[in-house]
Amino acid sequence: MIGFDLKEKIKDLKKTRRGIPEEIFDLGVAFWLINPDEENYTGEYLAPKYIHREFDNSEEVLDELRIYAVDKLKELGMEKLFYKLEMPLLLVLADMEINGIGVNKDKLEILNKAAGKKLLELTQKIYKEAGASFNINSPKQLGGILFNKLSIGAPAGIKIKKTPTGAVSTDFETLVLLKKEHKIIDLILEYRELFKLQSTYIKPFLELIAKDGRIHTNYLQTGTVTGRLSSENPNMQNIPAGNKSADEFKDCFEPARGYSLVSFDYSQIELRVLASLSGDPKMIEAFNNDLDIHKMTAAQVNNVPLEKVTPQMRQFAKTLNFGMVYGMGFIAFAKSSGLSAADAKKFIAEYFSDFKQIKKWQEKVKEDARKNCFVSNLNGRRRWLLNIVSSSQFLAKQAEREAINMPVQSLAADILKIAMIKIGEELRLRDQWNDKIRLLLTIHDELLFEIKDDIIKEAKGVISGLMEGAFKLSVPLKVSIESGRTWNKMD
DNA sequence: AGGGTACCCGTA
DNA sequence: AACATACGGGTGCCCT
User: Fold this and answer.
1) Are A260 and A335 in the same domain?
2) With bands split at pLDDT 50, 70 and 90, how would you rate the model's confidence at A333?
3) In the predicted model, what is the mean pLDDT of chain A?
4) For residues A263 and A489, is the Cβ–Cβ distance under 8 A?
5) Interatomic distance A430 CA / C2 C1' (Å)
């Protein structure tokens, strides 16, 4: 089977219980591997660009595209990635999309009504404080009310952020700084949070509940430049977490009767990948001994013993650790940590003197990227970085950050994909588990299943084992498991 | 009316 | 001048 959007075709075959062809060759995915930042991966776009022909979906054109892709994949060393990873994954994604996740529509509708009522109340309060009615959702109008009509200004010594077009920003970060200046700020923040929940999550999700009472997202296999998946209609990879209304929302996702929701989460997978790729001895040691990595980092950069690490020190270290994966500079670190620029600079310098191999590794990645104009991960997945030799310093620096992030983010993504494939194979082999365990969602470093209660215990062991064994790093992979009666009530 | 963009914001 | 990676998506608003 060869063509575009094979995931959709395979879903059709599966739904009508027809056989799946042995060989699958998705042209969109193939060209995505060859260059992951094309505008799109349709035949209409690719055929003129790569084989200089109009796309007419004929056998002839499809075959010509395939021949080009096969050749190129071979040349770039990505045959294995294509045939052994992405194509088998396609089948797992098809299953996942068919499965969907159960939603309690009644609960969600109640939530919708409550949010609507509360938003009306907040709107009235905001109008009263403002002394006028206006569109709270319009940053322009809101800015006019806050900064002109009410003349709210920054407290002494604090600079207020401007948007790229020069207007005073009304984003969360800015409003929080102004909290003490006027009662209206808290109301706006509360309104924003609830409006976001209703407009982005509650309402669209209600519309997307299928006849089977479930929501079936669409996974985009060609949606990112790093090899991650993305998800749309709805995006199941940015469901809110952590605040009260988010908890209520997640409470609407439920397993089928007799099943539980069970999530398997790779713990610190990107930092583990970074430790392994860089070979940094301190970080490897920390993971080998299953230490609290952020606490350990805090002890290192502050030059204190582990037991002297304060929660605040740990928080800085956590920001620092994540920042390192992204190539954060001291200005950004200062901003996100609240430190002065000078202190931020010192911390980063300290970080790199403690974890020398990380610095070395990053320099090597940048050097190779400049030489090749691409960067690749251990599996040969590749991202082109033409800007890394740009004469614009900003563009070149940005490409450098993309370069050091790519091998980490993309290997972590591959590891999850490998685990998904292994799990798919395992489930096919275990007849006695037939329909007792279903993979529902993947969220970058997490897999969510629904599992029949009589096999939960055994399944937890099998799945986490497959995940932890999916890829051999120089540090162990660790999986944490939670299960519950809703997506919120998990432990 | 529909397209493009600015701003904002949710996740890993 | 930009200064942390990767995404999808809602609403406002200006344009054609």
Assistant:
1) no
2) confident
3) 93
4) no
5) 54
